Amino acid sequence: MRISTNTIYESGLARMTESQAKLMKVQQQVASGKRILSPADDPVGAARVLNLTQSQELNAQYTANRQNARSALSLEESVLQKTTELIQDVKTLVIQAGNPSYDESQLKFIAVDLQTHFDELVSIANTRDGMGNYLFSGYQLTTPAYALAPDGAQFNGDQGQTMMQVDSARQMAINDSGDQVFDNIVSTGTFASAVAAGNTGTGAVSRLSVTNSQMLTGHQYDIVFSGGGATYSVYDITLDPTRAGIPLATGPYASPQTIAFDGLEITASGAPANGDVMTVRPSEKQSLFTTLKDVITLLQTQGSGTIGRANVSHGLGIANNNFDSALDNVLSIRASIGARLKELDHLDEAGAAKNEHYEASISNIEDVDYNKALSDLSKNQIILEAAQKSFTKITGLSLFNFL
């Protein structure tokens, strides 16, 4: 078969180009350490590597989330440690104030010290994180958690908890609402007043206080208005739930009206309608701020006289129990934070193991076998050199060499 000179050149060039391309590909594999340089090299392997890489990136994001969660929880733990120390200091002062040898001026000095602790507690409750968000405001991140109020401090946040995805199947709360930390305290010996839901008048309670702690019963009371709101009657509904018996106290009503019974004194104002009811109930929960404020007021106003000293002694006993409840509550939340931090450690260990698995799997699929690659490199170099030399020889053949 006759072969033209042009065919010889084109065929030789094609073979050399093909050999050079194979050599370059092996060189790239050796240089990069990767067997799969494009999906065309191994479509199935490339798809598996893509899936594994995506899983690895998700795992890395969960690791970053856990670090952020750990930072937030560590900050809260630090703040609650300060709160624990503050409550313990307050309890020491309360016990000190119970010394019967202290006179009125000394009790007021302790009240001043407690006021400093109160201000510090408000500052702690309004702590901000590194982003400037209020730590204990729930979802209201830009709103200070607490603002000063006559009875202590008013909570302006909500009960929301920020949740963070720390693993594929685990969301974790990275904060706690101030309502749970500072307000949700089991109360002892304190009372709350309110107007009944069905009232039609404008009567309201402006003040409730303990005037004689020795007379307290811990019962529940209803104040019922009659005669078009011109008369009030106080009933102990713990003993007389149907209000069929003789009232504890009764009298004409004129706003503002002070109503006293069983060691309590309530000031009612406004214009209650006939049949309207005001309630007085022992408190189930009390704010730590309210407990501390009550102690300060107690030491400032009740330090003289036999009844006053008895009120101080009784009030300090109640406050000490409430501070114990507050301390238990804070320690319980700190224990919860500790459990979450420990869980993050376990998740980090599992995440590290997953990352090692992904690395090994990806390596097994896409990494080059250097022994084979170097052998192929040497082989392709020889093939290319052979092709080049043979091309030179063949193209040098000519009939003119024999003339």
Protein architecture, described:
The structure is a single chain. By secondary structure, the protein is an alpha+beta fold. Among the domains are: 55-188 and 301-353, Up-down Bundle (f41 fragment of flagellin, N-terminal domain), CATH 1.20.1330; 191-282, no CATH class. The chain has helices at residues 5-32, 43-97, 104-125, 178-183, 288-301, 306-366, 370-395; strands at 146-149, 152-155, 163-167, 170-173, 185-186, 191-195, 204-210, 221-226, 231-236, 249-252, 257-261, 264-269, 277-282, 285-286. The chain has a 5-stranded antiparallel beta sheet with strand order 6-13-8-9-10, with no helix packed on it. The longest helix has 61 residues, at 306-366. Belongs to the bacterial flagellin family. Keywords: Bacterial flagellum, Cell projection, Cilium, Flagellum.
Descriptive keywords:
alpha+beta, 5-stranded antiparallel sheet, 403 residues, f41 fragment of flagellin, N-terminal domain, 14 strands, 7 helices
CATH fold-level label of the domain at 55-188 and 301-353: f41 fragment of flagellin, N-terminal domain
Note the overall shape: elongated
Helix count from the secondary structure assignment:
7
Instruction: Please compute the radius of gyration using only Cα atoms.
Output: 41 Å
Proper CATH architecture of the domain at 55-188 and 301-353: Up-down Bundle
**Which H/E pattern describes the elements?**
HHHEEEEHEEEEEEEEEEHHH
What is the rounded distance between the termini? 23 Å
What is the strand arrangement across the widest sheet? 6-13-8-9-10
CATH class of the domain at 55-188 and 301-353: Mainly Alpha
Q: Please state the oligomeric state of the protein chains shown.
A: single chain
Poorly predicted regions: none
Count of DSSP strands? 14
Question: Beta-strand level of the residues, as a percent range?
Answer: 15-25%
CATH homologous superfamily title of the domain at 55-188 and 301-353? f41 fragment of flagellin, N-terminal domain
* Overall pLDDT metric: 83
Percent range of helical residues: 40-55%
The structural class is alpha+beta
